[in-house]
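JOB MANIFEST
job_type = single_chain_structure
chain_count = 1
residues = 264
[input]
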Amino acid sequence: MSDLAAARARYVELIARRERISSKRLLDALATVPREDFLPRGPWRIKDEAARSYRLTPDADPVRLYDNVLVAIDARRKLDTGLPSLWAHFIDILDVKQGDRVVQVGCGLGYFSAVLSIMVGAKGGVRAIEFDQRLAAQAANYLRGYGNVTIVQGDGCKDVGEPADVIIVHAGFSHPHPLWLQSLRPRGRLLVPLTQRDREGAALKITRRAKGFEAEAIQQIRIFPGRGRGVTALDDRVADWWQRASALAPMRFRALKRGLPSDD
């Protein structure tokens, strides 16, 4: 086994053990997709989960990427790739199945688009939306070999295409967007980070039920803010309300009114 293959195997084992991943399809996808194929050539600026500053890898050996680290996409804006263990945990919780239609809002450079592509298989599909034109173009280039992935440069708060089984939002918002809820198929699942202006908050899983929706907080998160996320104190209070209410117990609601749950 090569050094790179061994590093990738250790990486998958680390994530599986840390997050207690139950989906074999997810682990197989993580073992298959080369992380280095979805980044510019190294050396790379990386940092651990709790670190506030980056460190530069000593060389461009892809082995450096097979650890539970963030990799800078734009260090100036503190825009990074997703932490592998965190997003693997979220994907596992969302129970992505073969044949599912998945929408990503904010796909970045497309690494997790590729992982999801393998998980849903040829009968499923991934619609990867990215607002940033440069990132969308790079993702489209990196994902050329993944025929069931559609890259869309656009605003994921305005159009997500056809209804989906799973919607994953890769940026922080103050509340779930009504479009995402309306676009869920029966028993569809939405994962959305609800954060304040300091980028801190909680990731919520929202499931479409027969008579509305059910929301539950999954875990704390720090993440880059989504385009269109409000910047007022009221937006922060809305995000905080969601986090506190959904942390107590799964919360049922029928619709949204001014960003908050409503039974109307």
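[summary]
The radius of gyration is 18 Å.
Helices lie at 3-19, 24-32, 84-93, 111-120, 133-142, 178-182, 233-248.
exit_status = 0
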